[in-house]
Amino acid sequence: MSKGIYVATIEPNSGKSVVVLGLMRMLLGKTAKVGYFRPIIEDVEAGEMDNHINTVISHFDIDINYKKTFAFTRSEVLDLYNQGKSGDVIDEIIKKYKRLENRFDLVLVEGTDFSHENSSLELDINMLISKNLGLPVIIVLHGDGKSMKDIVDSAQLAHDTFKEEVDVLSIMANKINKEDVKELKSKLAERINNDTDITVIPKIRSLASPTLKEIVKALDAKVLFGKDMLNNQVENFGVGTMQLRNYLTKLKDGSLVITSGDRADIILGALQAHASKNYPKISGIVLTGGLLPEESILKLIEGLSSVVPVISVQGGTFSVANDIGKVKSRIYAENSEKIRTSISTFENHVDTDMLAERLITFKSDIFTPRMFQYNLLQSALRDKKHIVLPEGYDERVLRATARLVNTQVVDITLIGEREKIQSRIEEYDIPLNLNDVNVVFPTQSEHFDDYVDTLYELRKHKGVNRQMAQDMIEDVSYFGTMMIHKGHADGMVSGAMHTTQHTLRPALQFIKTKPGVNIVSSVFFMCLEDRVSIFGDCAINPNPNAEQLAEIAISSAKTALDFGIEPKVAMLSYSSGASGKGEDVDKVRKATEIAKSIAPDLKIEGPIQYDAAVDKRIGKSKLPDSEVAGEASVLIFPDLNTGNNTYKAVQRETGALAIGPMLQGLNKPVNDLSRGCTSDDIYSTVIITAIQAQDL
User: Fold this and answer.
1) In this structure, which long-range contacts are made by residues 690-693, counting pairs with CB atoms below 8 Å and at least 24 apart in sequence?
2) What is d(CA 281, CA 291) in angstroms, rounded to the nearest whole number?
């Protein structure tokens, strides 16, 4: 089941509020606790609340702090985008949404309003947010002033654009002429001929009519009388410049009278007509020109038992009338009548039972890198671990350390001379305070002699004497690995300045492999645009035999499970199924059989080609009965040459984030970095190492 739903639009004034209010009522009828979230709100004055948020949380009495219902204002987002920090925007939105997701059964997420220019950026942001939250989308668009062809074209374009990135649950066309509803629904169903629900909502006049309160705000008007009736809806408006006897015939229900402030005859006549049973009820009176009636007239109005709102503005009569015609109706918290109308409109025209069922049964296949990284961070924070970084002089290591300290996700030990590390921090202007980490130099450590003795006892059967043990412990890799062995650290990350052999040799000598594990292998987490795949082995074993390949597959499947990825294992080769012949493909076929015999419940397919493993269309055409083909999440390469080149090709050509390599099979986690790694790579690898340590 989805934990949320995203309501998006492609244009301003779509009537999105009707859908949001109706959905909230529907969801509250299906589940006990429903949250509300707006990732990006309009800029608001200090001390004011976003109108959408205020309306929803106050009307439905949602127990949620206002500041937790949004992540950014529009200006804040644009500022971060201009600084090249778009990733920070998504990370913060994910973090705030996840907090609500943990608290509520379901969260209704409302997208932006398209109330400004640069709609293409706004469209991209909404798709990016819904994709990274893993939510199905309801797209709302309006038909006001559009031909039927334009509505259908807009709906299809919106559907196809969003469908490339996210799951579209429903298209809702709003503000449609009643006589066109049936035909439009049929045309939309023909054009969007898949499982996307099509809903057409007719134009409701009362929802399109602004209130006096909205007109007062738009015109910066002064309210003279009738403050308690500012929610009156303006169904139409007319200018009172003719003689009263002629103007009275022009009045209609809900009319807003616009006249100069010195036209006492029109003012009093309109008020008297409102009180009369023989004339329509007006909604209010606008006095123009900054003119006010004489004191005697004001006193007369004040003494009436019931007075519609009378407001005063500065502009001329006809310019004010023009401005009033531009006022767009909004739904706000105090206007309970419009809220009730919105909800009933939604319920009358939307199949709520079907929509609720689709939402409840919805499951997204999208798993973005940002989602994965957020989950990694949260997993590491649940049980804080201590990670040692032997390469304390490297700029990248120090920058990663500063970021790790800032997030407080792990405790860090840097190996090196404190003064030299401090010098590097100042040289590279790194925001790291060494008081926030543990700094140790091997020969100055209080544990140095104990580490030497321990290593001597562990390796003397291999001809290591005490002097040799001392020389070895002076090496940063041996010292860091011994910290783990002795329980003074939980894991180690190295390799930015050292070879893989230099990093792994101590671990293989005295950390050793887990019981039942015969081979240490590696995986990369390949964070592609819409999924995270595991590639193994791309860093350690040059040419594993069938038994080793099977063990790598089983270890990699367990890694996938440990990191929240459903393991569907593809044993890669140049051939799919039973067609291929030759020593290389036979090795993969045998490895697959061995893995199945050891782990019979594992979803595994092999031999299979890369395209058949990851592309659903190709996978189903080549291996139609396979539960892995086209959906593989764990890809096992037959040798290091293939694996290393493939992960690098995918990384470079697609821009995928490659996290790793992460080593599998050791009793305690030691992970090797590429010497071309970035500080981001080190940051991610440290977090993965900390998560590995939680399972030990």
Assistant:
1) 690/380, 690/384, 690/385, 690/387, 690/409, 690/410, 690/490, 690/491, 691/376, 691/379, 691/380, 691/562, 691/563, 692/491, 692/562, 692/662, 693/385, 693/387, 693/490, 693/491, 693/668, 693/669
2) 24
C-beta of residue 526 within 8 angstroms of C-beta of residue 533 = yes
129-152 pLDDT tens trace: 999 998 999 999 999 889 999 999
pLDDT at 2 over 70: no
Among 3.40.50.300, 3.40.50.720, 3.30.450.20, 3.40.50.2000, name the CATH number for the domain at 4-205+337-358: 3.40.50.300
Q: At what angle do helices 148-163 and 119-133 cross, to 10 degrees?
A: 50
The alpha carbon torsion through 618, 621, 623, 626 (nearest 10 deg) reads 80
List the one residue out of 277, 265, 282 whose CA is nearest residue 225. 282
Sheet-wide strand order for 657-664: 603-608, 568-572, 634-636, 532-536, 521-527, 657-664
Q: Which two tokens stand for residue 130?
A: 């819904």
Instruction: Please count the other Cβ atoms lying within 10 Å of the Cβ belonging to residue 345.
Output: 22
Domain with CATH 3.40.50.10750 in the chain: 516-665
Which CATH class name applies to 516-665? alpha beta
Residue 121 has a pLDDT of: 82
Residue 287 to residue 309: CA distance in whole angstroms: 11
493 CB-near residues (< 8 Å, 6+ apart) = 387, 388, 389, 670, 671, 673, 682, 685, 686, 689
What's the rounded Cα separation, in Å, for the pair 51 and 330?
A: 9
Answer whether the bond into residue 537 is a cis peptide, omega within 30°: yes
Please say if the pLDDT value at position 117 is more than 70: no
Question: What's the confidence (pLDDT) of residue 113?
Answer: 83
Q: Where in the chain is the domain with CATH 3.40.50.10950?
A: 365-512+667-695
What pLDDT score was predicted for residue 357?
A: 84
The predicted pLDDT at position 118 comes to 62
Query: Which is more confidently placed, 118 or 413?
Result: 413
What is 212-328's CATH superfamily?
HprK N-terminal domain-like (3.40.1390.20)
Pick the range with the lowest mean pLDDT from 236-240, 322-326, 366-370: 366-370
Band of the pLDDT at 171, cuts 50, 70, 90? very high
